[in-house]
Batch of 2 targets.
Target 1
Amino acid sequence: MTTVLELAIGFVLVCVILSMVFCAVRLVRGPTAQDRVLALDTLWMCAMLLAVVLGLRFGSQVYFEAAMLIALTGFVSSIALAKFLLRGEIIE
Amino acid sequence: MKRWLPSPLSSLVLWLAWLLLNQSTEPAHLLLGAGLAWGIPLLTRRLQPHPLLRLARPWVLCRLLWMALVEIVRSCFNVSRIILFANPEGLNSQFIRVPLDLHDPHGLALLSCLINSTPGTVWVEILPDGHELALHVFDLHDEQWWIDTIKTRYEKPIIEIFEQGERP
Amino acid sequence: MNAAAELPLWAAVPVVALLVLGGAIVLIGALGLMRLPTFYQRIHGPAITVTLGAGCLLIASMIYFSVLQSRPVIHELIISVFILMTAPVVAMLIMRAAVYRDLRAGKRDTGAMSGDVYHLPSED
């Protein structure tokens, strides 16, 4: 059962990292600014999940604090960027 | 009571959050958490733009949250199926208008959180002309079905919870 | 990784199932973000990552540490509640910003005008 659990954790790690790659592709390619902000927000979320899964992988509770801080800063930065897109235009 | 403990509910939530963050039930943490839970609502009472929340029917809220959870899981699988197998050109993604009767700000906040948490629907805004909600639906088949679902399954319980006593 | 050896079978099965489901859902959400054609469709992709994907992984983490340390470790609940409260706000603000920007720029082919809710300023 241990190897199955290890395999599952490895699978999730690969999934999360692959989704981060997808988000990065959209971040670079995204035709409009709102696409990039959306990709950045999803990237924060994936980073948070990566911290949680790494905590499982190494059996350590320290990653919980990292995940929590990533979630907090991600929310604040996404809100700031979205608010800037909403009102921060020169042409208003 | 009212003066020294303005909002027992938020005090309780703060206390539980403090205990969860510290992961302990030692007397010291219990005491410090209780102090914070008492002080923070008292100090931030002036900052709150709306009158304090009064929950009329907690069990209706529980039932609503459970129903929303089931709906979230169900539409998660729907959206995954569409992303994986459907042809994206054939999707009918549209904005629709939903007339709303709800006016309580807390209720509107809860409704927007529930609708936005459900994959496949995104709340855009309440349109300035009239009290109508602009909603974006990922794959629209039947506009009336969405309007009926939101009105009966989400809005009616929320009106029951938050606007009890304000309505004739 | 030595710690996982002590996990009993009855706990390992749900943890593995939740991990695989959560990982797959996260991947599908990001895939939707990458391959759907317009912005208004792409915004629905990350919604499943945030709700079911994150939920499954956090519940798996809760079960894993609770069984491993034989005491309830449920502080992942804070992250879950925080995400459930904040992710809708972010989605709503980005959506509103996108609609306003498209209307302001006068773009017709982005999908902002579909469904007869929003019109270009000149058409009013």
Target 2
Amino acid sequence: MANVVQSLDPRASGSHAAASVDAESLLAALPDGVTTLDRHGELTYANDAAARLFGFPTARELLSATTDQRLTAFDIRAARELPWSMALRGDRCSEELIRVVISATGEERIASVTSSPLHDSAGMVVGCINRFRDVTAEAPQHGQLDVDRTIIRIATAFANELDIDKLVQKITDEATAVTGAQFGAFFFNSTDASGGKYMLYTLSGAPIEAFSRFGMPRATPLFGPTFRGEGTIRSDDVRKDPRYGQWDPHRGMPKGHLPVVSYLAVPVASARGEVHGGLFFGHAEPGRFSAAHERIIEAIAAQAAIALDNANLHRATQRQLEFTRLALAAGKLGTWEWDIVNKRVRWSPEIERMHGIAEGSFDGTFEMYQSDIHPDDRARVLESVREVLSSHRPHYLLYRIVRPDGAVRWLEAHGHIERDAAGQPVRLLGVCSDVTERVVGEETARRLASQLARSEEAEEARKRMTDVLEAVTDPFSVLHDDLTIEYVNAAGAASVGIPCEHLIGKNIYELFPAVADTAFPAAIEKVRVERVPQKLVEYYAPFQRWFESSYYPLRSGGFVSYSRDITALKHNEIMRERLMRQERLRADVSAILSRHASLPEILSGVCQSIVGALDVAFARVWTVDATGTVLELQASAGMYTHVDGPHARVPIGSFKIGKIALERAPHLTNDVLHDPRVGNPEWARRERMVAFAGYPLVVEDRLIGVLALFSRHELAEDTYSALRLIADLVAHGVERKRAAESLAEQARELARSNRELEQFAYVASHDLQEPLRTVSSYVQLIARRYQGKLDPKADEFIAFAGEGASRMQRLIEDLLSFSRVGTRGVEFASTSLGAVLAEVERDLAPTLREAGATVTSDSLPTLIVDRGRIAQLLQNLLSNAVKFHGSTPPAIHVGAVEQPDEWVLSVRDNGIGIEPQYFDRIFVIFQRLHGRAKYAGTGIGLAICKKIVDLHGGRIWVESSPGEGSTFFFTIPKQPRVSVERTE
Amino acid sequence: MTDSNRGRAVEILLVEDNPADVRLTEEALSEGKVANTLRIAEDGVQALSMLRREGEYAELPRPDLILLDLNLPRKGGQEVLQEIKADADLRRIPVVVLTTSSAERDILKSYELHANCYITKPVDLEQFLAVVKQIDDFWLTVVRLPGEHGR
């Protein structure tokens, strides 16, 4: 392959260059554009077709242009990645559409590109080869049918018309009509060596007189290229074309010229390179001609060139006959003289011999002359003579005479008239010869010539036609009215996979019986009977291919069939349509799954969407029940919508649905009738079911359920893939829905249990308070009244009882305040945390002073919080910081860091710190890390802190290491969020 | 010292079902300066009967001060409070809510029902004694209450 790249590289030299000649000329001749790029994406080869696609006249200009020049000359847009970028990565890219915008004209072309990577022997990508097919004209708005029709019409005209005048007029008329031009003209290329003059041949859209006042067009910079066969010129406004208006005297259109703004000119050049002339089109409005017009006209010009070649051939034959005729004319001559004034005719003896009478026996009367003339020619001869007498034209007659013996001879007479001074005819004199042999020979020759025309010439024509048709890459055939094939091109034979020789002479229906089941018979009847063209887009099942066929009746009987294999296009179209439906379905299903509705409602919506989008018979979803052993039918849409009946509960492992669940593998078939898993083939046959698809709904190894559907048409591979995605969406949707439901239930349960707990804590502590107060009061009363009056042990016991009671008292009070955090109404208001901190510091002033503590803080934000609770939170944290101080006096810092959605506040101390394993435990109520003797407290403070932070929708955590102090962090959202635990 | 309080023992109705608290209140009041007669109602129903001098309570004098617990059998303290304050004859008698509850909603509700003051019984004996002494001082000495003859 590396060799190919080198050989395609115009810079290559030596033996490679020699070897490349064939490949290059082959590529250059291709109608498709071909380019090669090296591995850096540099252009190394382009043929002319590729150059034209990108707006360069030939490959040479494209190749010699710099990258910048190319970038400014055209713009390439691709829906996805550029095909050659893919190819240079090593991926082949087939039939990718790109849009080429030619900067100079703004014209857009659509090309189908196939890019293939080129590898060296080591398998490395060394470049790529790109094939471009200009498909602009295939876009439906450009009227492919008209192109086909026009070209077919030209071809038909060619087959039947050897009259150049009529042919060219027809070409001009049709080309003008096709381009929508106001005027169209065909100028014949004169072979004048000075190159100055061109002859107007035909004109369409205006009377020929519109041009008669002007000279013929000359080889100006504008017209010259067309007459020299240098390619098509198209301009949206010819007046702005740099080639326009260069030559004196007019410098543009002469005054009174038909108004031409839009301009299109195509050389009509034969395959041999002979330029017959040019087709020129004009319109008074700018921008009337498109690239598609250009291509149609080029196709017509090619047909016109072929026609002209053949017409010239015909003419040459005619001229040859003329020479023969002249040669034969060198026969015996007689002289004659008619004295008009004296009414006497004088013949030389040769003429008497010609008339088969004896020498000297002619009586010299006009009557006798007349009587010898063949009765069928007599009137014509007299008429001609009369005409000659009254005009100045030379006398010429070819006529028959009948000899006395009855023999018929052909005589040819030339003559001229002599007049008197007044201009009156006096005498007609001339020569006469017997041309019977010549005329007969000529007749024979004519017959021969016409046979030639039918055989050799027509053969030549047919051969050319065939060449053209064989070059057409789309199937083309000519059918007799009895539907036998008269002609089929190679592409046609290839499209059906049968050699031409096995097709020609065969009947369509015998060859392709399945055609009888398509729209073909009806369409072809219309062509045969009504002689109107038909167009069909038909899927031909035996070949599994789509054809777009046009049928045109031929005047001579039979019709032409022109097909395009649009399987790829159609597949693309079908696939695009299918992918769009799938995409819509995915979006629909996603939307449905996020709806606030019950699970059966949601799944029913999903099933309906699937049925609607994929046109399947019905779709169902089962979910696994609580026991995990049975699938419960949740939703059904399509021909069955019930969710009860035999399929309502399917044990996992049973039937095809249960097996899908058990195996956790999809079951897909496009042949339901022969699928062993389909339990009821009788039903399937009756209901004409074709396909079944069932997917397990699985999320992370958890079986959620099964999604299944039946279809009356086959399902494509990509539909299966799409359904697999849908199944995945549904599985996750169901899982999410269930998780959300269970979460909501848990949240409700949690809120309820919290409320109950708080209620319990409140009531319990309240009711505990009463007896405790009694115990504590009376212990104190005893102490008050009887201290020192009993024995010392009694005093000690009384002291213990008193302490126990008061500790219990503190626990109850803390429990009450903890429960109050949640029970009291929450009041959010914009609050300056700085002010709150100052307040707390004031409240704690004695404690702080006593411990020698210092409190510093960052600038604290103003947030929407419950002021009282935040004060309590800061107070608890500050108290803790003081309480758990180390050997040095407490240094407390309150920090604040802003995050996008929240503030992170912190209270840092230099105290004893906390071991990491207790980081979570300290926030749990009544959890203490230290003996009561060392640090007083019930272990409620941080639990309250956590509750307050939770209530604000924030988080609280600690970072610490023993001996190095602790930092308590908590977050407060910028937007207040009341937590679910909030109760009022 | 006001005229109305002088010369006779102040009548106090203590509505309290807990004998230990009754006893403790008696102890506390006995340490006070003002002579008083403490009558006890053990539930809300009895309290209202006594106040309205129904049946066997027909001869009872109208109390000068009511000490009302909230947590009572048969009829709760707040119901009692509501009925007292709805009764034209009784509404002028100052009602001191003396209860173990320190719940906001109890405090609020009590004042909404026109309690004259709300006191949470301190758990600590010394504090309790001090509180009763302050009640004694304020309501029986400082405040001028409407007397029987003022009606």
